[in-house]
Design brief:
Order of helices and strands: HHEEHHHHHH
Radius of gyration: 23 Å
Number of strands: 2
Shape: extended
Number of domains: 2
Structural class: mainly alpha
Mean pLDDT: 79
């Protein structure tokens, strides 16, 4: 797929539409696939954990045939693929076994990012009229499983929809914003 310089917008739709989600055990019922699906990723930071879980989910994970040499203790004790430290060295040093970064500092960075997103949300909500603010808060209570990053995208989308509507037809656009929520749930 080529883009002209500076143009990142695609003019056509995606060629191969994904009708169903990928299942790594759909046609492969081997013992190896069952073991990989039951594998629990531990001893790594959240980012590395997500990377390894993605590799398992889409059949990109390649397990080690033989133990590898640990960077910390220089012995062949690394038993998991994509790790550079054995579990004992990683737990003693309190660092990620994959990226060698301090787990506490990574968690602090994530907490700062979450706080920053929450502050942005609060400042956006302060600028909204009371009726629109309560609507957004009610929608978020219904959708507790979303992360704060998803909420930032949602609020920008909803704000653009709310800004396009006038206060007279605001009630009509409310149902389109909430998607699957019924009118009875909206009034509560």
């Amino acid at each position: 797929m080529s883009y002209s310089k500076g143009n990142t917008n695609r003019t056509r739709a995606q060629k191969h539409q994904n009708k169903t989600a990928f299942k790594n055990n759909l046609h492969d019922t081997s013992k190896k696939t069952k073991i990989l699906n039951s594998l629990e990723v531990t001893g790594v930071c959240t980012r590395c954990k997500e990377i390894i879980e993605w590799k398992i989910k889409f059949k990109k994970y390649k397990p080690l045939a033989a133990p590898r040499k640990c960077v910390g203790c220089e012995q062949k004790t690394v038993k998991y693929a994509y790790h550079v430290l054995c579990t004992s060295c990683a737990s003693v040093k309190k660092i990620c076994a994959k990226c060698n970064k301090d787990i506490n500092s990574i968690q602090e960075e994530e907490i700062k990012q979450i706080d920053n997103n929450e502050n942005k949300l609060k400042s956006l909500l302060k600028g909204l009229p009371e009726r629109k603010r309560r609507t957004l808060l009610r929608i978020w209570k219904k959708q507790d499983e979303n992360t704060s990053d998803d909420k930032m995208l949602q609020i920008e989308d909803m704000l653009s929809k709310l800004d396009n509507s006038t206060d007279d037809d605001w009630g009509g656009n409310l149902s389109s914003l909430e998607g699957s929520l019924s009118e009875d749930e909206i009034d509560e």
